[in-house]
Amino acid sequence: MSVATTMPDFSLAELLICTCADVWRDDGEVLATGIGIIPRLAQGLAKLTHSPELMITDGEAYLTETPVTIGAKNQEGRRYGGWMPYSRVFDNVWGGRRHALVGPVQVDRWGQANISCIGDFASPKRQLLGLRGFPGNSINHTNSMFVPNHSKRVFVDGEVDVVCSVGYRKERWPAGVKHDYMRIHRIVTDLCVMDFGGPDHAIRVVSLHPGVSFDQVQAATSFPLLRADGLAETAHPSAEQLAVIRQLDPKDIRSRQLKDNPPGVRKAA
Amino acid sequence: MLNKEMTVAEVVAQLRDGMTIGIGGWGPRRKPMAIVREILRSDLKDLTVVGYGGTDMGMLCAAGKVKKLIYGFVSLDFIPLEPFFRKAREARQIEAMELDEGQLHWGLRAAAMRLPFLPTRIGLATDQPSKIMPQLRTVTSPYEDGEVLLAMPAIPLDVALLHVHKADRLGNTRLYAPDPFFDEQFARAAQRCYVSCEELVDRLDSDETDAKCNPFERNLVSGVVAARGGAHPTSNVSTHGDGYGWDAAHLKRYCAAADEDGGWAKYADEFLGGDEAAYQRAVGGRDAIVNLPRQVF
């Protein structure tokens, strides 16, 4: 039997769930907040595998040690360890005890992100969500980003249209403004994983998803990227991880998150 | 003895053009929509509306009642962007004071404590001070750290409008929601606070456990309104049973109106021509509203 036939088959969505779950590894007892189906499955996967100490919610106002099943019909059987209304979410944000995985619309080379509007704020071409929690989250605790459509439209040239979350651009941090609590851990996209581990927090590619080349990532990005030392292929999901994902998402809602539900190993272009 | 019972019409008769009105709830959750609908039927105009917005802000924009919005977001959750808010913004119909969600809490809290501002790091190193709120200023810590902080200005309200599960005629209230959101801060930041409720009783005389579900004191409450089903089409989930989910079908119908020519006028014609009882009949009846299943996340 060849090795290839014993490897589990996986979709890109499943690869991304596993890759996103990894952003919370070694975080300790922080509130893990994943927004959207793939990040939510990722937070549950992280908790049920490498990071059981994470705090997560039921998607509403309670903390649970048992991640909820996505697509459940009712609240039946849900048990709670604690209470997490929005006032306490803010308290966790301001106290730095949180790591959110957020979905920005635009991101620039400094890791600054936009979800407010496209164009000028005073006369927007397209109103988006607004600042929401981005200013407070980004200056108070660690954040990672999930970008399921890696493209030049997302990873823009220059600064994003409205800087909603703070980044590593020095000019934006005058003397006296404390930046000790901000950290952008990783950006997980449908092509690769990036971080800000280059010189002066320069953005770099740290792993490429199976079948994706560095040149392909660079061509889909408006600013220059660095290759991390030891740039490798993103780890494939294990059979155990895939089993946990199926348990958290029995209705396979994950298969509807990316257009045409592409396979995890893409054919070279 | 005190009797603060009012009708929605009596509440709206207290409002004036140009007032700053804070509305409790969060997106498609626990909005005092019966009172909002009465505002939609009124001649009020040039309002500044403050909140974690949903249909309340969208409908008030659609009806041309709004001069300025002060918002943490305007969203229906499962429909991420409130379409009438988006239209109003893109047509430059309204002034927009776009805040971080926590800044809005902080602004209300400053007003509640009668302070001019509260310090925070939120907003520093973003585009908010330059592009969104050029009036924002920083303060420097007078202590050894010398840290530069943003001075979040107070957001005092003329009026707060809230929806809760239960109230009595003295103005005592009970909130059985999984999340009380920031209703308490709205009540404290306002000169006057009007609360609609699912059930109005003469006097709440409950045990200790129930008394802890009192979100704010009665001396903050100017009026209480009996409005069973009054949060529709937003939800009013109750951990004591007896709550209801949001009306997803109605919200979709409402959002679709934003894409039609004259869509809002058609919506208003269909649902806002009569009083609240007529509204409830038009959306399927009160029983249908209060039996809407709770959303599962």
Give a summary of the structure in a few sentences.
Chain A has 269 residues and is of the alpha/beta class.
Your description of this structure?
The complex is a heterodimer of chains A (269) and B (297). With 269 residues, chain A is of the alpha/beta class. Chain A is 22% helix and 21% strand. In chain A, a hairpin with a 4-residue loop joins strand 2 and strand 3. In chain A, helix 2 packs across helix 3 and helix 3 packs across helix 7. The N terminus of chain A is likely disordered. Chain B has 297 residues and is of the alpha/beta class. In chain B, strands 1, 2, 3, 4, 5, 9, 10, 11 and 12 form a nine-stranded mixed sheet that branches. A three-stranded antiparallel sheet of chain B has the order 6-8-7, covered by helices on one side. The mean pLDDT of chain B is 97. Chains A and B meet through helix 4, strand 9 and helix 5 of A and strand 4, helix 4, helix 5 and helix 6 of B.
What is the number of beta strands of chain B? 12
**End-to-end span of chain B in angstroms?**
44 Å
Largest sheet composition of chain A = 7 strands, mixed
Q: Strand count, sense and closure of the main sheet of chain B?
A: 9 strands, mixed
User: Beta-strand level of the residues of chain B, as a percent range?
Assistant: 15-25%
Output the helix-strand order of chain B: EHEHEHEHEHEHEEEEHEHEHHHH
> Structural class, from helix and strand content of chain B?
alpha/beta
Number of helices of chain B: 12
Give the averaged pLDDT of chain A, no decimals. 95
